[in-house]
Each structure stands twice: as C-alpha cells, then as structure tokens.
Amino acid sequence: MSKKVSLRKRPNILFILADDMGYGDFSLFNKGLSHTPALDQLTREGICLTQHYAGSPVCAPSRASLITGRYPHRTGAIDTLEGRGLDRLSLKEVTLADVLKSEGYATGIIGKWHLGALDPRYHPNARGFDEFVGFRGGWQDYYRWRLDYNGVFRKADGRYLTDVFTEEAIKFLRRHKDEPFFLHLTYNAPHFPLQVPEEEVKPFLEKGKFTRGVCLIYGMIQRMDRGIGHILEELRTLKLEKNTILLFTSDNGPQFGGEGQMCTTRFNYDFRGCKGNVYEGGIRVPMILRWPDGFDGGRYVDEMIHFVDWFPTLLAACGLKVPKNIKLDGQNMLPILQGEKKKYQKKRFWQWNRYTPILTSNAAMRDGDWKLVRPPIPETLLVSPADADMDRALKYEPEKFNDICRDPEPERKIPSPPAAQLFNLAEDPFEEKDLAPEYPDKVERMLRELERWFEEVERERRTIKE
C-alpha cells in the first residue's frame, strides 16, 4: 500500500471552537430561545458530552490546554492580556498541529489564535499550522477587522467577520479534499464586541423577552450556526462527511454582566457562574462530535472529559502515538467515545486570575462527583486601566506596538480568601449546597491536592525564560 493511500484513510479533523458560548445557547437545550438548527442537528446525529470541561474559564489559557494536552500554567499561557505576553504559548510546547503536520496532515487555523502576538516566534505558522487566516489577539471588531493571511495583513472589505471565517474554511476544505487535514476553525463569535447585521437581531427583539445585549448574542450565534450549516453541506458535497471527525465546543462559558439593555446575562442551563470563574457555568462547556466512520451517533456520553484529553484522543483516532518527549496531562478517551468501559483519571484542576497566578483565588478541583472550589477574590480579577487601554489600542492601532509591555505588574492589595466550598455534582450539578461544613476532612484532603498540583504546574511555568 502506498504512503499516499495509507494517509488518505486516516480521518480528517475539523475542530470548531466558539468563543464564550454555553450549553444554554443551543436552541435544542433552551426550548427555542435562540436559533441554532445546524448545531441542533449535529447534536442529534453525533455524540453530546454532558460533562465536558474547558481548560480555563477564560480564552487564552483554555486554548493552550486544548492544543497541547497540558494544563495552561505549564504552557505559560496564563491570562488573556496579549499586550503583556501573558497569553504566549511557550516555545517549548508541542502543539497538536505540530504532531499532525509531521505525520503528513495539512494543517490550518482560521479565526482567533490568542496564544502569542507581537513576535513572529509565536505566530501560528511557527506552531505547526501550514495556513493561518485570522487575528492573533483576544478579540477583533466584526466590521473594522484586520486579518493576518500567513503574515500578510488585509483590512476589512465590508464583509462581516464571521462570514469571512466561514468562507475561508470552505476554501480550505476544497484545497485539501484529497489529503488528510486538520482544520481548527476558531470563530470569535459571540465574544465582545457585540456586533451583527440587524436582520439577525430583529427576530429576537420581536420576541420581547430579552435585552438588546442578549438579542445581539443570539443573532451572532445564529449567523455562526448558519455558517456551520454551509460547512456541513460542503463536507457532504466533497464526500468528506463520513471520514471527518467534526468537533464543536466553546473555549469557556458565556460572558454575563453589563447594565440595562446591554446586559448579557441569560439562560445557561441553570449552571452557577459564567465566564471568568471556576463554577460550572464558567468551565463546563458544550461538546458535540460526529465521526460516522468511527462513532455511533445519537448518543449522550456522561463521563467527564477535559480539554487536555483531546490531544491524545484525536491522535489515537488517527492511529498515531503521542511523541515520547511530551508529558501530557490528558488521557486517551477514544474507548469511552466508542462505547467501551474504561477506567480513567477522574481528578481535574483549574485556576485563573489576572497577572501572576494566586492559588487562593478562583481555583477548583474535581475528584469524581466531588468538586472543591476556592471562590474568586474580586481584587485578583481586575485589569489596570493602563492595560485595558493598551488592550483596546492593540485591536484598532496595532501599528503602534512592536513589543509587549514589560513594566512591573500593577500593585494590588489582596484580602484574605473566603472559605473553600465543596459540592457533590451528582446530587447538586448547579452548586447550590455547600457541603464543606459537613465534610471538613474531605475539604482538607482536596485542598492539599489542589495545592500540590498548583505548586507543580507553577514550578514548571517559572522555568520558562523567553
């Protein structure tokens, strides 16, 4: 058998990542509040994971864990502030694209990168992706966009950004239909700024049930869903549907907040919390996957799967091994997805705050059904006014910057942390009853494990000298 024929039999991977979207944003799960027919159909045809977790409650760290199979602290990508380089994926990290490219896959990323800007060493083309169309920071204007096409910049031409990414994805599929490919399609919808053609907003405004902010988000999701529908049709046309592993998820939970008509707080399956915190609403995210040649569809899978698990799982699905020099936190969950019974790691960890990580704020551990939470300390989640101004300027005046800000972190007064909380998610998935007072020994044990994990990943992060 020739190498070309052998490669062709390997499955393609189309990994679609939305930005700040929750379970409650699917019309299938919210009784028609939104309108997501393509995603709803995918859910019916494929596998829906009910306990799927992002790597972090915010963008960049979560994406780092997804693409490396490692906890974000290890990778150096600890925050969203690209102006300070806190989103940079360490150059020592090996990405999923690196491995697949070395095995003959065509690799591309279209959309949001957010794992290093302002330095060509962190460009997607240097991190395993043959092709890149998108932006490297945390967000982008949907009309006044400036996109990087493999290092060449193009300015907005009147098209809506979500549509641009859909069109570029379809072009990628056509270019690579005769070879195995890995396409990471990273829509920035429905992330801020809340912008979408008014015809997408009107149906939701007419319902009279939502703020304008929620209507804008539902409109943005509807537009993205329509694009996904076009991509699904293209896969059928190109006869790629059966041997393509298609995955859809979000980098973290939905963004809530805002005032008056621009408030974005909405239904999210009654999970506690939202983007930015480690309660379920911030880290438990939808995952729909379909692979007709490899999975029986029409199923729900209840086992816990974390972003770090996709690196080894997708390699296994492609018949490939994890390189020996990589130390992963993830595990191969392919047998679980194929309906087999398998023992797997049931302990997982999260932690995030602004600037240097602080264990006592916004951290969590899952051990089977039990979840320990160190609640967020609000003072640790604030961005300085200067950094907020720089973040906006990077999007609209990028030519003013040629390096990250290397000033000391802003000074902060951090108060004593609140008491740890304990929840049994099997009995209380919405984290309504804190059981810490009833199980002090369990709390103490889990706190020690969380501390050991944090010390280990932080020790590795501190070895990064870039």
TrEMBL record:
<feature type="domain" description="Sulfatase N-terminal">
    <location>
        <begin position="11"/>
        <end position="319"/>
    </location>
</feature>
<dbReference type="InterPro" id="IPR017850">
    <property type="entry name" value="Alkaline_phosphatase_core_sf"/>
</dbReference>
<keyword id="KW-0479">Metal-binding</keyword>
<dbReference type="Pfam" id="PF00884">
    <property type="entry name" value="Sulfatase"/>
</dbReference>
<dbReference type="GO" id="GO:0046872">
    <property type="term" value="F:metal ion binding"/>
</dbReference>
<comment type="similarity">
    <text>Belongs to the sulfatase family.</text>
</comment>
<keyword id="KW-0378">Hydrolase</keyword>
<dbReference type="GO" id="GO:0004065">
    <property type="term" value="F:arylsulfatase activity"/>
</dbReference>
<keyword id="KW-0106">Calcium</keyword>
<dbReference type="InterPro" id="IPR050738">
    <property type="entry name" value="Sulfatase"/>
</dbReference>
<dbReference type="InterPro" id="IPR024607">
    <property type="entry name" value="Sulfatase_CS"/>
</dbReference>
<protein>
    <submittedName>
        <fullName>Arylsulfatase</fullName>
    </submittedName>
</protein>
<dbReference type="InterPro" id="IPR000917">
    <property type="entry name" value="Sulfatase_N"/>
</dbReference>
